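Subject: Sanity check before I submit

Could someone independently write out the structure tokens for this chain? I want to compare against mine line by line before I put it in a report. The sequence has 255 residues.
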Amino acid sequence: MKKTIFLISLLAISCWLIANSAAAQEAQPTGEITTKDLGVENPGILPSSPFYFLKEWRRGIKKIFTFDPVKKAELELEEANERAAEIKKLEEIAPSNIEAITKAAANYQRNVERLKNRLEGLKETSQNPNVDKLLDKLVERSLQHQQLFDNLKLKFEEKAELKEQLKAGQEKIDEIVAKIPEKFENIEAFRQRLEKAIENQPEGVFKELRLKEKIQICIQVITPAISPEGICQEFPTPCDVPEGWKKVEKCPASQ
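---
Independent answer below. Compare away.
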């Protein structure tokens, strides 16, 4: 079977957002993600509190008494989103507490790693309505977290360790989203899911990405295609296949 390498366009989206937000260094970044956008009105106890362990206990107990594999993955995603909201809240109320924000970013990374393991263990595909709903929420949250971390990296430009933690968190969530077309559904279905998630973002969030001429969402997966003259060639993504070429499963062995 042909080995397929999945590199999600979220990485390109992140780079594009940073490149187009240079003006945000003197003003609030456009598309600012709030805790409300994340669906967390009040993040509650924050990692800077000595009582944060109580919140961690509650999370652990809740997961112990959850047995359905899909529900367990949902809980990990919910928890990762809560941790993203905690990072945002800390940035708002204690921007000078770099140690606490860095710790919160490290917590996020560990959480996302657990989510990745949960997803890898699922047997169902997106044909399962519960899995389909989970994937929708996963793509939505991943886009929001990418934008949130991009904004934070701009605000904490001089804090090298924190920037690295935020970047690592982005890479972790990218690894997870890359599992969707690999494990749960075909490439085209995922591309439609991703486009829908961007379109559904609130006004101002990824607004620029809605302009198709600005950026094209495409999964990077090696795509063989045959030209009108019968020449078969592999392209890095389906979007790179020239007009008039026909996509095929694989190029003939003779070529």
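---
OP: Matches mine. For the report I'm noting this point. The chain has a mean pLDDT of 82.
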